[in-house]
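testing teh design pipeline on a random one, pls ignore if ur not involved
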């Protein structure tokens, strides 16, 4: 897709055929779990303006960094797995940034232990979403993000559900319940998935034969920091 195809989404169903837009990379589409750049473009266009500070506490290959720079926002990006120099090494539960320092936060977290990101002991991609401790950890991250986000500003969290070994885990709903303890809801968007490894004829055949569904979308939970604690 080209940059000209970029439009502000008007519904809660977002479907982008490719990870990137335009001629320049935004993040690295070979990075495991890379975020579609259009998702971040849409969010920054809607909820921020030029000069705003945009924080991504799990920014991986830096899709948020690249889109934010292009839109003249000021990104501050963290991860435990450092693959580029603009990213600061930090645990999302304890960010080296002052309180009320961010105008917007985007996060695309692990949604279970399905992808290996690094050997770091605090990597949340080591904990299965079938274990309640996974959601406890995500809630610690949420509380930290509430601390860094200015009052009235928006947090957007992208997460997928899990169907594994005949067991469905509604990860997005469980995370939403935790986020709703600390933030007000703005909306929930379904972001279509395209490039997952199960998008093959064999897997589509298995899904029909064994009566399960392949994951077709991720949840984009859009929350506002209006509550006091
Ligand atoms: C889905 S990937 C993010 C992809 C990224 N948005 C991109 O476009 O490249 C999830 C990221 O969370 C990071 N991560 C996992 N646990 C973390 C933690 N406790 N603190 C900071 N980053 C963490 C992983 O290293 C990984 O890069």
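output:
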């Amino acid at each position: 897709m080209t940059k000209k195809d970029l439009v502000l989404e008007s519904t809660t169903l977002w479907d982008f055929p490719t990870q990137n837009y335009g001629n320049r990379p935004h993040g690295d589409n070979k990075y495991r779990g890379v975020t579609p750049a259009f998702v971040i473009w849409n969010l920054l266009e809607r909820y921020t303006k030029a000069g705003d500070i945009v924080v991504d506490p799990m920014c991986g290959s830096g899709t948020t960094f690249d889109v934010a720079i292009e839109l003249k926002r000021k990104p501050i990006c963290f991860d435990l797995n450092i693959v580029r120099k603009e990213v600061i090494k930090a645990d999302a539960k304890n960010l080296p940034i002052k309180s009320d320092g961010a105008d917007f936060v985007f996060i695309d977290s692990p949604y279970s232990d399905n992808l290996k990101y690094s050997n770091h002991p605090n990597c949340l991609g080591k904990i299965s979403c079938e274990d309640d401790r996974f959601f406890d950890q995500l809630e610690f991250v949420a509380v930290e993000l509430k601390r860094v986000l200015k009052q009235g500003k928006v947090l957007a969290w992208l997460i997928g559900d899990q169907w594994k070994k005949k067991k469905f885990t509604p990860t997005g709903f469980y995370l939403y319940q935790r986020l709703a303890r600390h933030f007000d809801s703005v909306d929930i968007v379904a972001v279509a998935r395209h490039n997952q490894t199960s998008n093959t004829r064999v897997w589509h055949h298995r899904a029909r034969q064994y009566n399960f569904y392949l994951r077709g979308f991720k949840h984009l939970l859009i929350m506002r920091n209006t509550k006091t604690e």
